[in-house]
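Below is how a single chain appears once it has passed through the pipeline. First comes the sequence as given, then the structure the pipeline wrote out for it. We keep one example in the README because the format questions we get most often are answered faster by looking than by reading.
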Amino acid sequence: MKKVFIYFFIFLLIFFLLPAFLTKRNVEAKGINNSTENENKVEDKLKEKEKFEEYNYKTYGTIKLLHTKTNEIEEVPLDTYLCNVVSAEMPVDFEKEALKAQAIVARTYTIYKIQNKKHENADICDDSTCCQAWISKEDRKLKWDENVRESNWKKIEECVYETKGKIITYEGKPINAFFHSNSGGKTEIPVNVWGGTGYPYLQVVETAGEDGYLQYQSEVILSQSDLISKLKTKYEDITIDFTNNDDLKVLEYTDSGRVKTIKFGNHELSGTETRTLLDLRSTNFEIIKEGENIKFRVKGYGHGVGMSQTGADSLAKEGKTCEDIIKHFYIGVEITEENKL
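Resulting structure:
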């Protein structure tokens, strides 16, 4: 009888108490795992918050932005403004390191403009032909497909805030950080575009891979009469003998291969003036006669000075970082925090 009681007790222990004990252990283990997961989530959120926190700019935390269409001046945090600039200036589907380079370049350009004021009551304007392009967050999102609006804007924010505070300096001062769409393979020096004495950090540099972008090549075809008409908007007395090859030819090229001086009949024009009058994408062009028409075959898009945006994307695809990209296009520069100026 005693043995029966012992067996019965063992039976109870195995079938009731042991499963309860194991269940408790599993619950405790699960609780520990959940606690660890929660701690990881909190840590990730803190990292995300830190990444998107405003940089404590010593001097340039807020800028005065002139909206040229309304003539209103808005005070806005610098990095908030830069999100609008980067989203307006560079395609969001470019590589992240290219977008980060654009953010640093735009921040530098902004601070340079503040230090070298062009507008009486504002630091910078939203006109790309004067300062930098700018688009509101709402308008930018409307230009994207609905299913990518939030992810695209988050990508822009990440590129701005992951580079917060960073600017490009030469000999301890912010540079005049020019940039353009596509260099056509080689950048240009500013003297050949705007005259003056130039900047030592803006030199002719080569970039491979730009021919894979739509901005690399374009054509403008004009009839002889249309060409004369466009040139007469500035030179009323212009005449061209199209049967004489010497009346329509490039006289001089820059070191980057762009047109420096071109002859149109009884006038000699600079490449930059020709680009403006004929609405060409760059000064890197060749002239081809096709019967009664004149074809201008153009390479690149923009003035060609400073960072090429498609060039930046091409370099990023090769694995270059934003700092590598910047130091490729701007010679002898350093990446510095604004607070260390």
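The longest helix spans residues 2-52.

See the next section for the split statistics.
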